Amino acid sequence: RIVRIALEILESEIRARDLAREHVLITAGATREEIDPVRFISNRSSGRMGFALAEAARARGAQVTVIAGMTTAPEPYGVELVRVCSAEEMLRAVLERLPHATAFIAAAAVADYRPATRQAQKIKKTGARLTLELEPTPDILATVAARKHESLLVVGFAAETERVVEHARDKLERKGLDLVVANDVSQKGAGFDSETNIVTLVTRDGEESLPLMTKSEVAHRILDTVARLRKLARG
Amino acid sequence: RIVRIALEILESEIRARDLAREHVLITAGATREEIDPVRFISNRSSGRMGFALAEAARARGAQVTVIAGMTTAPEPYGVELVRVCSAEEMLRAVLERLPHATAFIAAAAVADYRPATRQAQKIKKTGARLTLELEPTPDILATVAARKHESLLVVGFAAETERVVEHARDKLERKGLDLVVANDVSQKGAGFDSETNIVTLVTRDGEESLPLMTKSEVAHRILDTVARLRKLARG
Description:
The structure is a homodimer.
Chain A: H1 2-17, E1 23-28, E2 32-34, E3 39-43, H2 48-59, E4 63-68, E5 80-83, H3 87-97, E6 103-106, E7 113-115, E8 130-136, H4 140-147, E9 153-160, H5 164-175, E10 179-184, E11 196-197, E12 199-203, E13 206-209, E14 213-214, H6 215-234
Parallel strand pairs in A: 1-4, 1-6, 4-5, 6-9, 9-10
Antiparallel strand pairs in A: 2-3, 7-8, 10-12, 11-14, 12-13
Helix pairs in contact in A: 2-6
């Protein structure tokens, strides 16, 4: 028993500094795409998963920068926090800091469509229907993966409501990522506005399905995988 | 000087109980209209103005019920708080409580358009544009004003970006309201995500433009007008 406790302490000590050489760039929260000065399109996101990753990475010795949209979760402590509004702004903030990063984790719920034109004045309500033309926003994750320097590890999330792992593996391959954290947001205890999550970690070499756990525990498991992939990359 | 202080204390004492016979029903925050399980349309709103009204009304002796959508401001203390998501849900919650109310203050930023159809599964991103068909949401304020019992005072807000008082007076007459609180949300220090507001109180008998003040002060000025209109109605 003493040996087990000693091993656990040792392991947590090793974990505690295993990211000391990393500079982790994390996106968190939801972007807002304005329709007019009052209305916007957004995604459900508390920012909790991204903030948990930031705190976990800092605790393990990494330098951490968070680019955050709209969040409701308490802000992380001891990390650089940059606020942005739209997907466009988030992309710009990420690219600016990318040269210094060694790992990029895209935990934000980025609106992937935005109004094709933003109205400068509030649209007046009429009784009639209204057609809103939407265009795709820039794909932050794909842009980063395409421009990445050799030592950058890129981690994405896939929030899905059906065929979750299949969509996640497709995303991994299509965008050239190192890890995709897949979660079925239709499950109870997973995803938005929740303290917990149920995820599958999809890498090029396999899949690891995790049980229901807190977002802080999920964060550590993701960072365990980042540390493992770093070792693999070093050979 | 002593007389002035005494008068002020007296006035605040009178104010303190001047709504003791009122049951004030207040809406606050932003509604969310779902596009699919992940995306939604919403409005900018912290809920701060509605919550300030709730606290001010309670302090002046009223019984208070708040129907709130999404908010970021701290919740009010000592009042009944009901949470809802969409405009449809907010309307239902309001109508349920309307028979007991003596004043209705619509401080929520209700989404006035919603997707004509909600997708049960997350819409997959493609490179192409997307057309979103929007339909008007039920008009909570107009519905309440149309169904109001004789002694109900109805107060609306008009957040505008141009010709503010004109739009407010039009709203007052068109919907049959007792008071419209008009604010130009394009002004600095007014509207969303702000601790302060700059408003004009538009009633059937006139207009009162207030300078920049805290939302709590604005709340009291609105309630002063409610108390005045109540006296007028009693004759």
